[in-house]
Amino acid sequence: MPRRIIRMTAREVEGLLRGHGFQPVCQRGSRRKWRQARRGLQVIVPQHHGRQLPLGTSRNILVNAEIPESE
Predict the structure, then answer these.
(1) What CA–CA distance (Å, rounded) separates 61 from 15?
(2) Domain spans of the chain, in order of start
(3) Second label for 28, Cα 20 to 30 Å away, from 34, 43, 45, 56?
(4) What are 46-55's pLDDT values in tens digits?
């Protein structure tokens, strides 16, 4: 049975990205761009000020960042 993705805030997602070697590049409005130059990956994290991100958004960020859902 596949594991379910838990709901996370933008701050929690950014902590996970930072742990996998991503660095913040820039911010425009309420969107922050993160890159990992070594593997050429880039993701955009919306800033929802303490609210949890929608499940589809969280999953899409993790898939594009090539972070296993088990984390």
Answers:
(1) 13
(2) 23-71
(3) 56
(4) 998 889 999 9
